[in-house]
Design a protein that fits this description.
The structure holds two protein chains of two kinds. Chain A is an alpha+beta fold. Chain A is built from eleven helices and 21 strands. Chain A is 33% helix and 24% strand. Chain B is of the alpha/beta class. Chain B folds into three domains: 201 residues, FAD/NAD(P)-binding domain, CATH 3.50.50; 111 residues, 3-Layer(bba) Sandwich (FAD/NAD(P)-binding domain), CATH 3.50.50.60; 105 residues, 2-Layer Sandwich (Enolase-like, domain 1). In chain B, the strands form six sheets. In chain B, strands 1, 2, 3, 4, 5, 6 and 19 form a seven-stranded mixed sheet that branches. A five-stranded parallel sheet of chain B has the order 8-15-9-10-11. A five-stranded antiparallel sheet of chain B has the order 20-21-24-23-22, sandwiched between helices. The chains are: A alpha+beta, B alpha/beta.
Chain lengths: 441, 462
């Protein structure tokens, strides 16, 4: 089969491009990997690389032609067994502007001399077709002129497009507008083969931007996503968030954790997050004015410290609650967390596991996130966003030292707590997480 | 006056490829000649499709009479006349051959009797006369494959030709090769009480069919008393005075020797490409077949080839289709339609088998994700009323886009039913279009609908 070469879309927004330069001439042999041409957009110049082999049979636009629409036919590769019909089919199939086609003919004529008689005939027929296209344009019918079987027909000007059921479905699945396809079936009906050709064509050219998009998939919104959407929309809309961020030196924490975990079996190992929960709970207990919720008429100050911990699952997240976390030791917290994680993954968390909670912790450290701003989970007044631990140079006593730093960011509900309260809470948290021994008291 | 030997088109061979191409050429007003050295209509009409269907109709009627009491009809003293059965088959073949003669005349086609040989581009020699044409279509067909030791001796070792005109019914028959031809003869002779043994080198009978179909047909034929040996290779057949001595290697490697009254060899066919002047032109061949492009044109411009000489599937309707396609292209290349050719296949044994598209195994090899529906005919009211509810319809869809990619049927009149699938596939109907189609009740065709529904777990009568 002859292979059409189209103007590629070099970026998602590109609608037209300029042909900077042809790197091959008509009659040149093209091998996979050869650069055929350079194409220019307002942003960059890129090379069109061939994945097919053949002889460059036709060039439809000269060097320097501007404003060539994406997916316009710019050239045709001919393989050994191609007939005049194969070439003509491609010309028929593609919308073309008339630019430069006429000048191009001179080169075609040069070629003719060395051809055999039959091929000359083929060429002439192809040129006949070209002439008709030019005719169409001179009579100012420029909406998608499509040449079909030697006769000029203006397709798709609001008419119904004939396509087989299977062709329609493939077009739908691949986001292809049938307007761009010329049908090869009876009376121009679009059939599967036409779409296969179109899809092959579009994957036939490789360039530096991937312009073939994957199929959009529609999925019913899960109830979990609905809840997340509703609650967080309310939060972002109604809760005036303020953000405080602090770097914590966790050298001691790492050391303590190593010491503790030495004595524990694998399944009881304490995680960094367990320390964070314990530290935050203790900090809230020590700064009780931060442990509250906003109410228009009256605010509630919580009697206990119940920490909601975000656990990511497929298609959403859960926030089970460690109740009275300030009174629990690290091992209790760790055991509860491990239990919550396995229940969450199995979809077996009970409402009492995730209802309530006065304050949230969201830890994305394991994903390598340095720091981030979390959205408060109403009616709570705050959430701590925990980043990853990484080694950083810091200045201690006028000396640069390499320490393990973990950045934590507090999001606070400004209606309930002010910056100073939040700052005190974070300061307390920092002092605990940097000196885990204090948590024992 | 000197006869004008110049034509627009000369067709060599008048089988279902050649004569159909000639008629189409006549319709288009091309000055056309067709060359035939034997009978008009070729193997299909004279020694293949048609006369065997006539024979199988006799065996079917005999079978129906044998079960007539199940239908409340008493026909105790029935018998048959072997000679009449054979004669009827011949008469039907002759009638159709005359019909072809009439149709060719009606379309103003010159019929030239003799062997046509190409003698350079645009030249054909018949009986030492030169004819010229701007286009030539080769439609010389094929013949039974010549395998050493299995040569037909026209007496005891038969090809399909001898198998359809014996003087008397043989006591026992060894059928070598379980393709459509072998299985049809096995079914025919078995219905008349001949002790039939079928051997097949591959591991299934009807090896081109879906495995489920092959397994089903085998069990049905075995119930009828036909002995079937698969993975069994013929070593030698020796023709004796009134019978044959056959030697074959069984599945377990042992050699088996047995005497049979006759043997039918149906181990495939090969193209008739010799002695037709191919050496005078530049026509590419491969594995004993002529290579053509989509429109049947060979590597030599102006020379076309259609039907069996271009390779599998060796089916009459494929040849006819290619013939029409080639003539349309010769008449006007721009108008010629570039559609896909989906060739159904039929076997007229009892039970009948029909299929189109690809098998489940093949689809899986292609890495396709599938939706497969199977509907047994005992869920079909019409089949039950006919007393022929043995069989099933299997439909295969591509799960990704609902494309109908294969259908496989076994049971009564499935050779008629397969056309429904052929249309659906040609028009690229998806499962949804077939869901929406109303099938008349009560008909066997409802089993197609049910099979399609079953592929999506929606069948009603299972």
């Amino acid at each position: 089969m002859a292979i059409p070469i189209l103007m590629p879309a070099l970026s998602p927004t590109m609608t037209e491009g300029s042909l900077a330069k042809w790197c091959k001439n008509i009659g040149d042999e093209v091998k996979p990997g050869d650069i055929i041409a350079e194409v220019e957009t307002d942003k960059a110049t890129m090379e069109i690389e061939s994945v097919d082999e053949g002889i460059l049979e036709k060039i439809l636009f000269n060097d320097g032609t501007e404003g060539i629409g994406v997916n316009s036919l710019i050239a045709i590769l001919k393989s050994k067994n191609d007939t005049e019909k194969d070439i003509k089919d491609i010309l028929d199939t593609h919308d073309r502007a008339d630019n430069n086609v006429v000048e191009q003919k001179n080169e075609v004529n040069d070629m003719e001399e060395v051809r055999e008689e039959e091929e000359v005939r083929e060429e002439e027929e192809v040129r006949e077709v070209e002439k008709k296209v030019v005719d169409v344009n001179t009579v100012k019918i420029i909406d998608n002129p499509v040449v079909n079987d030697g006769e000029v027909t203006i397709k798709n000007l609001g008419q119904k497009i004939a396509a087989s059921p299977l062709a329609k479905r493939i077009a739908l699945q691949n986001n292809i507008d049938l307007k761009h396809i010329a049908g090869s079936g009876p009376r121009g009906r679009i059939v599967k083969a036409d779409l296969d050709n179109y899809l092959n064509k579009n994957s036939g050219l490789r360039n530096k931007s991937n312009f073939m998009s994957k199929v959009n998939v529609s999925k019913k919104t899960s109830s979990m996503r609905k809840v997340i959407a509703e609650r967080l929309s309310i939060s972002k809309r109604e809760v005036p968030h303020f953000y405080l961020s602090i770097d914590c030196n966790v050298d001691n924490l790492i050391k303590s954790r190593e010491e503790i975990n030495k004595t524990f079996d694998k399944e009881f190992k304490i995680s960094v997050n367990d320390f964070v929960i314990k530290a935050m709970a203790t900090a809230l207990f020590n700064v009780p004015e931060a442990n509250c919720t906003w109410g228009k008429d009256e605010m509630t100050f919580f009697g206990s410290v119940d920490i909601s911990v975000a656990i990511a699952v497929q298609d959403g997240l859960f926030t089970p609650v460690i109740k009275n976390a300030n009174y629990l030791n690290l091992r209790d917290i760790s055991v509860q967390m491990k239990d919550f994680v396995s229940k969450a993954n199995a979809g077996k968390l009970l409402p009492e596991d995730y209802e309530g909670g006065n304050f949230s912790i969201s830890n994305l450290g394991m994903y390598g996130i340095d720091s981030f701003s979390a959205i408060i989970n109403p009616p709570q007044s705050g959430i701590l966003a925990v980043g990853s631990i990484s080694k950083k140079p810091i200045v201690i006593d006028n000396e640069i030292k390499v320490c393990n730093i973990m950045t934590c960011q507090l999001s606070g509900d400004h209606r309930a707590i002010d910056g100073a309260v939040g700052a005190r809470l974070l300061k307390e948290f920092k002092s605990l997480i940097e000196n885990p021994v204090k948590m024992i008291v | 006056m000197v006869k004008d030997n110049t034509y627009d088109l000369i067709i060599i061979g008048s089988g279902p490829g050649g004569y159909v191409a000639a008629i189409r050429a006549g319709q288009l007003g091309l000055k056309t000649a067709i060359i035939e050295e034997s009978q008009l209509g070729g193997v299909c009409l004279n020694w293949g499709c048609i006369p065997t269907k006539a024979l199988l109709r006799s065996s079917e009627i005999k079978h129906l009479i044998s079960v007539s009491k199940d239908f409340g009809i008493k026909a105790e003293n029935s018998s048959y006349d072997w000679e009449l059965i054979i004669n009827r088959s011949r008469e039907i073949a002759d009638k159709l051959s005359k019909g072809v003669e009439y149709l060719l005349k009606k379309n103003k086609i010159d019929v030239i009797n003799g062997r046509g040989k190409i003698s350079g581009v645009g030249r054909v020699i018949v009986n030492n006369n030169l004819y010229t044409a701007s286009n030539i279509i080769l439609a010389t067909g094929a013949r039974p494959k010549n395998i050493n030791g299995l040569l037909s001796d026209s007496k005891n070792i038969w090809s399909y030709k001898e198998a359809m005109i014996p003087d008397k019914k043989p006591e026992s028959i060894l059928v070598v090769g379980a393709g459509a031809i072998g299985i049809e003869f096995a079914s025919f002779y078995s219905d008349f009480g001949t002790k039939v043994t079928v051997i097949e080198a591959q591991n299934h009978i009807l090896p081109n069919e879906d495995k489920d179909i092959s397994v089903f047909v085998r069990s049905k034929l075995e119930k009828e008393g036909i002995k079937i040996l698969t993975n069994t290779k013929i070593k030698k057949i020796t023709s004796l005075k009134d019978n044959v001595n056959a030697e074959f290697t069984m599945e377990d490697g042992t050699i088996h020797k047995e005497k049979y009254s006759k043997s039918i060899v149906s181990v495939g066919i090969e193209a008739n490409i010799e002695n037709i002047g191919l050496e005078t032109v530049d026509i590419k061949q491969e594995d004993g077949r002529i290579i053509t492009n989509y429109f049947g044109e060979t590597s030599q411009k102006g020379i076309f080839a259609i039907g069996d000489i271009t390779g599998a599937p060796w089916l009459a309707h494929k040849a006819s289709h290619e013939g029409i396609n080639a003539v349309n292209y010769i008449f006007n290349p721009k108008e010629a339609s570039n559609h896909k050719k989906i060739i159904p296949g039929c076997t007229y044994a009892r039970p009948q088998v029909a299929s189109i598209g690809i098998t489940e195994k093949k689809a899986k090899e292609l890495g396709l994700k599938l939706k497969v529906g199977v509907f047994p005919l005992h869920g079909n009211g019409k089949a039950i009323a006919l007393g022929e509810s043995n069989g099933f319809v299997k439909t295969i869809f591509n799960k990704d886009n609902g494309e109908l990619i294969g259908a496989h049927m076994v049971g009564p009149e499935v050779t008629e039913l397969i056309s429904t699938y052929a249309i659906a596939m040609q028009l690229e109907a998806t499962e949804a279009d077939l869901f929406n189609t109303v099938f008349p009740h009560p008909t066997l065709s409802e089993s197609i609908h049910e099979s399609v529904l079953d592929a999506y777990d929606r069948a009603i009568h299972i």
